[in-house]
């Protein structure tokens, strides 16, 4: 009997609130996908079994024999032991020392690669997306937590056998707020979606966010980014004030910051730069002023004085010419 051809690859994204698996052919053609809630609170053992059954259901739906799987790649939140395929810790799931690589290899009998989820995402952008052909790409992925990744000259930046770039666990304030990690006042503790959702739930419970209370309620699992954006768009000012530092400023704020940074410019000049998204263009030859004549650092400082973190990429759903905070909130 001829050996079964190994022509199917499985990609798996384990997130704080959802998990997604996709089956590919060798030419990257998608054969099918399946998405489910993670339910991390049920524990690591249950979570691993849920990952396995999700892959099996995908194979069944696509009528794919598991013998055809050439390999499985899974991206997981938190630091990963690259040598053993072990999830060392996931503060947002409450899992520690989970040998997910060994479990998947035992179940499906194929090679398994376990990697940090943001490392995987940034490498995907480097290979196929916005960072293609770049020498160095850095990505910050805000979600249930906040993760970071870096690809330099084609290689993912990692530690000695352990993933790194855990920017979400970097301390940025003296606050005692915790995100499930032992160090308080971290980026995740202050600005992750889970933190914002918790504050939003309290506001809804107190009656300060009537639209959110009416449409979603106070269940943290249901207060996702879309719900927060809708809450802001429908007048829940308390929610807007809480997330303001984590959203991109709207057009009026941008114009005010431009005027603060460049009082010598006329309103017409500022408007022209705004319409061309010029304040977000790269600086030339390391100059403080970019090709549109904007002093980037003065512009960012002005945004900070008004309570905004600053702009990473202003190219939002409306092309950068009329950007609303609710449109460009971290999704």
What is the compact description of this entry?
The protein has 331 residues and is an alpha+beta fold.
Report what the structure shows.
The protein has 331 residues and is an alpha+beta fold. It folds into three domains: 8-121, ATPase, nucleotide binding domain (Nucleotidyltransferase, domain 5, 2-Layer Sandwich); 192-246, no CATH class; 248-331, no CATH class. It contains eleven helices and eleven strands. The chain has a five-stranded mixed β-sheet with strand order 3-2-1-4-8. The protein has a three-stranded antiparallel β-sheet with strand order 5-6-7, covered by helices on one side. Helix 5 runs antiparallel to helix 8, helix 9 crosses helix 10 and helix 9 crosses helix 11 (296-305). Residues 277-288 and 309-331 have low confidence and may be disordered.
Question: SSE layout and pairings?
Answer:
Layout: E1 8-14, E2 18-25, E3 30-37, H1 44-62, E4 69-76, E5 80-81, E6 86-90, E7 95-98, H2 100-108, E8 112-116, H3 117-128, E9 136-142, E10 146-152, E11 155-156, H4 187-191, H5 193-206, H6 210-215, H7 225-233, H8 237-243, H9 251-261, H10 267-275, H11 296-305
Parallel strand pairs: 1-4, 4-8
Antiparallel strand pairs: 1-2, 2-3, 5-6, 6-7, 9-10, 10-11
Helix pairs in contact: 5-8, 9-10, 9-11
């Amino acid at each position: 009997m001829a050996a079964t051809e190994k022509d199917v690859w499985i990609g798996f994204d384990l997130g704080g609130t959802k998990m997604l698996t996709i089956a590919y052919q060798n030419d990257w053609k998608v054969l099918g996908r399946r998405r489910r809630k993670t339910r991390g609170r049920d524990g690591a053992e249950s979570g691993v079994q849920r990952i396995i059954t999700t892959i099996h259901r995908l194979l069944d739906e696509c009528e794919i024999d598991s013998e055809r799987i050439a390999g499985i790649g899974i991206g997981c939140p938190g630091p990963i032991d690259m040598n053993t395929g072990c999830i060392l810790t996931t503060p947002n799931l409450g899992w520690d020392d989970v040998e997910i690589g060994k479990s998947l290899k035992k179940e499906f009998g194929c090679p398994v690669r376990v990697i940090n989820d943001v490392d995987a995402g940034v490498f995907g952008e480097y290979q196929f997306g916005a960072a293609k052909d770049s020498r160095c790409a850095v990505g910050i992925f805000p979600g249930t937590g906040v993760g970071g990744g870096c690809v330099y000259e084609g290689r993912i930046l990692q530690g000695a056998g352990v993933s790194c770039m855990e920017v979400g666990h970097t301390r940025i304030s003296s606050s005692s707020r915790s995100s499930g990690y032992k160090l308080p006042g971290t980026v995740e503790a202050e600005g992750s979606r889970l933190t914002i959702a918790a504050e939003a739930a309290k506001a809804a419970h107190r009656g300060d966010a009537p639209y959110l209370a009416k449409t979603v309620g106070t269940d943290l699992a249901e207060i996702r980014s879309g719900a927060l954006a809708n809450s802001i768009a429908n007048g829940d000012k308390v929610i807007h004030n809480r997330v303001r530092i984590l959203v991109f400023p709207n057009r009026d704020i941008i114009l005010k910051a431009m005027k603060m940074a460049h009082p010598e410019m006329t309103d017409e000049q500022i408007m022209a730069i705004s319409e061309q998204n010029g304040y977000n263009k790269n600086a030339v030859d390391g100059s403080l002023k970019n090709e549109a004549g904007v002093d980037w650092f003065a512009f960012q400082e002005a945004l900070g004085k008004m309570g905004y973190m600053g702009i990473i990429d202003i190219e939002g759903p409306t092309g950068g010419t009329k950007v609303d905070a609710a449109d460009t909130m971290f999704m």
